[in-house]
Write a structure and sequence with these properties.
alpha/beta
Length: 273
C-alpha cells in the first residue's frame, strides 16, 4: 500500500531549472523512483555528475535547453516532451535565484539598487514560474489532469534583510500558487493540483556568497544568525526536499491543493526567544 501511495514510477515530470543544485537533486531522486524526468534549463548540457546520476535509472531522463522567460522556448520544450514520452504528468518550477546587485550592503543602499538587477530577480522568480504554468498548464487543462509544484521560499513568509526583490518575488510565487490552484480546479479540472514548497536556508550557488566565508566555508555573520534561528541548527541539504516533493507529486496528497509547505528546520516556528 505504501509503495503505491507514494508512487511516481512511469510519470513524466518536467523540471525547470533542472540542472541547478535543488532541481538536479529532485531530478535524480525522481529517476531513482522510476519516473521519466525532463530537465529544462538554459545551460547547454547537464553537469556531468548529474547526468551520471540520472543514467543510473531505473527511470528515464531527457534534457531540453529552455529559457523560462521565453514562451516560444517553453513551447518547444513541451513539444519535445510530448514527442519523446507522449504525455506530461507534472511540472516542477525550480528555476529561480537572486542577482548579487539586487542585494543591499554597506556600500549598496536600497535607494541605489539598480533597476536592472531587481528586474532580473523579479522576472526570473515570478514570471519564470507563471510562464511555464501557462504553457504546460494548458496541456494539463486539455488532458484534464496534472500536477504543478512551484518552489517558493521562506522569504515569502518572513522576508530576510538585504534581498528585497527576491523576497517580494517569492511572496508572489506563493500567492500565485494559491490563485492557480483554485483557477485550475474550478475552471478546468479538480484533478489538476497546484502546490508549492518553501525551502528554508539551503546552500546553493546563488546564496553561498551570503552565507559562508569564501575559502574556509565557515558561516558568515548572516549564516550564523540564520542557524541561531533554525531550531534544527543547520542549513538544509538538497535531499531534505525529496520527501515533501514525493508526497506532493504522488497519490498520497490526492486531496491537497493550494498549499505552500515550509521545509525549513523549524525557522518559521521560532520567535527567537
Amino acid at each position: 500500500m505504501m509503495d503505491t501511495l507514494f508512487a511516481v514510477a512511469e510519470k513524466t515530470i518536467a523540471i525547470t531549472g533542472g540542472c541547478g543544485v535543488l532541481g538536479g537533486e529532485m531530478a535524480a531522486a525522481l529517476v531513482r523512483r522510476g519516473a521519466n524526468v525532463v530537465l529544462l534549463d538554459r545551460v547547454e548540457t547537464p553537469p556531468a555528475e548529474l547526468e551520471q546520476a540520472l543514467q543510473a535509472g531505473p527511470g528515464r531522463f531527457a534534457f531540453a535547453q529552455v529559457n523560462v522567460l521565453d514562451q516560444a522556448s517553453l513551447q518547444e520544450g513541451l513539444a519535445a516532451i510530448l514527442r519523446q514520452f507522449g504525455m506530461l504528468d507534472a511540472l516542477i518550477n525550480a528555476a529561480g535565484g537572486n542577482h548579487p546587485d539586487a542585494t543591499t550592503g554597506p556600500d549598496k543602499p536600497f535607494f541605489d539598487l539598480p533597476k536592472e538587477a531587481m528586474q532580473f530577480a523579479v522576472d526570473l522568480n515570478i514570471l519564470g514560474t507563471v510562464l511555464p504554468c501557462q504553457v504546460f498548464g494548458r496541456q494539463m487543462a486539455t488532458a484534464g489532469t496534472g500536477n504543478i509544484v512551484n518552489i517558493s521560499s521562506m522569504n515569502a513568509f518572513r522576508p530576510l534583510t538585504r534581498i528585497p526583490a527576491y523576497s517580494a518575488a517569492k511572496a508572489a510565487v506563493s500567492n500565485f500558487t494559491q490563485w492557480l490552484a483554485v483557477h485550475m480546479a474550478q475552471e478546468y479540472s479538480p484533478e489538476i493540483r497546484v502546490n508549492a514548497i518553501a525551502p528554508g536556508f539551503f546552500l546553493t550557488s546563488q546564496n553561498r556568497y551570503l552565507l559562508t566565508e569564501q575559502g574556509s566555508g565557515e558561516p558568515t555573520e548572516r549564516g550564523r544568525k540564520i542557524m541561531a534561528h533554525t531550531p534544527m541548527g543547520r542549513f538544509g541539504a538538497p535531499p531534505d526536499l525529496v520527501g515533501t516533493l514525493l508526497w506532493l507529486l504522488s497519490p498520497a496528497s490526492a486531496f491537497v491543493t493550494g498549499i505552500v509547505v515550509p521545509v525549513d528546520g523549524g525557522f518559521s516556528a521560532y520567535s527567537g526567544v
